[in-house]
Amino acid sequence: MKRQKVYLLAFFLSIIFLNGCKEEENILQVQFEQEGDPFAIVDSVKYESERMSFSDGDKLFSEYIEKSLSENNFQLASHFKVIQVFQELIRNRSGETLANLERVHKYALEHGTIETIIYSNKALADYHSRYGDITVALNYINAAEELLPQTEDLHYHTMVKGTKAQVLKDANQRPEAYELFVESAELMYELGQWNNYSVIHNSMGLLLLEMDLPEDALEAFTIAHKMNREYGYLRDLFATYNNISLALEALDQYDKAIDTLRVAVELGLEHDHFHGVAQNYYNMGNIYNKIGDFDSALVYFERGLELSNQIGFDFGIMYNSFGKSMALNSLGQYQESLEHSKLALSYADRFNIETLQSDINQELYRAYYNTGMLAEALDSYIKHAELSKQLNEELRGKELQEIHIRYSVREKEALNQLLLQQVEYQETINANQKLVLALFGIIIILLVSARFVIYRKQNFLKKSLNTIEEQKNNLFVRNQKIEKLNTERQALMGVIVHDLKNPIAIISGFLELIEDEYVSDSNKKYLSHINQANTRMKSLVTSLLDIHELENKEVTKEFTTENLTDSLNSIMLYFNGKAIDKNLSFSCQIENLTVQTNFAYLKRIIENLVSNAIKFSFPGGKVEVFLRVDSANMLHLSVIDEGPGFTEKDLESAFKMLTTLSARPTANEDSDGIGLYTVKLLVNKLEGNIYIENNAEKGATIHCNIPVKVVEEPLKKESLVNV
Fold it and tell me: Is the pLDDT of residue 493 over 60?
């Protein structure tokens, strides 16, 4: 829910930033007879259009475009056309928007100036980023960036930097986006572009809010608020109040957030920003919904929906319908909730907003279930689960990995810099000492000068070393915080997964009761689907609990001394039977030695790898297992199959938790994406290593190397035993 509100606010704020940098907030009559700043001229017309209906605003821009072209001012005409096109984007006429933008870009390339080409590239980058085509968006904004050296107008420099930061933000490259936002803000400050300075701080705040840094976000929004109030930027002040309310909500300051939104509503109604007011109502409803005041939440969602219908604002209709369905569900009005959920879903499907599609299906599930429409409830639940899994796979662990990577890079850079400076320092000392010895007795003045230079360099190097030491200390503190966050994450995962066991057990019990007492033969297929989903969920929860226990378990206390062939014989017999069932050839060679290791972990490693090899092998193929111990007391395990093998992308993520690989089991067996992660965890616990290689002809081989202690048994002379 928090992510949806940030995305919605980011969309409205980007509409302000999409239209280019602005010099002043003057409300003036455009004078085409005199040359002027195109940004200020276009901005004044845009302000007029925002007080009109969409159709009247569209006519106004068409008149100014025609007038600009009659005066041969293509630069001004192209700016008007781009903003007119983005009015279509607000109304979600995406097809018309792209076609018009591409026409503007083509005409700019054929007849325009460098500035118009930059502007049209930037506009296309804005559009494609908005609709998730990040690669295309980056191509356009990079093309605009390459042209910047050909113009001295710094408006375009700040505009391109800001847009590229927004594209990188949409691409989840948050550190790079933040750095560009900062650079853009510094340039705007130097140029005195206070309006854009406030807009960029709003964008920075939204980025910080996505990174779960609400206090830093609030600070950025406060700077934007100060600029807007000081210079009278009423439109941007309206957006800033929205953003401040989000930060306050994230800090659990709900009363202040609601008061801030009330101010935004009053300001929006006063200046006819109706689409923004519809958004305010949605945000207020969300806060009341969050604190359990569902009646108040329903009131504000209804106001937002009514206003959105009046102005034909599709995004407002979608979000407020969704909000109303949540409130109605919580109030027990399930039938009415169904109507609004279906309406919201029709818009979310049209705009392909997967996060919202997932949440709406969850509300549909609640309503269908409570009205006794179990088949429809099951269908909605499955759609919600599939979308949630897809979204979670994309986002899981990304921020923590990003912090770890950046920390490692910075630490290495700091250490390398320290070493280089130390070498430079020593070389400087040696060079100066040789110079002093060579010149000593020749001229005192040169000696004094040399000593003075050495003193200054030593001072500089000492200061540099102190600075680097401080950076290392800061990196150490950050690393401790990251480790603490990771520990808290693991603890939270354990609690959540453990708490899921009871509901799953209850569901299983009720399913058995329903099957025995209430379900007709015609409906048993639905019950079968529910049973399968519940069984998979139970298996997944059990696996996750097991992983959580393994991550916190000491392995050395459970080492035993056993013979490899005796210990593993029953496992291999079991998998031989599984292979026969699937028409596979199965062979196993194990060195007949007695060793000391954690045999429970070793068996689980073999079970997971052999089970996967059988699952992904085609009937008629073969699976081979080799296990031997070398002279360095290193146990080598190899599991070979003739399945589809691994793609390059699969090899990069094969050992990550809950990863879905491109290959699928060949007989529709279950695969939860946990097996290889568990194997990697167990091998690491035994201080070994694991890797995958594709075979030359077909299939793949997984290798494990684990240190063991060999116990001599003179009576057993065989080298390898076929099991």
Answer: no
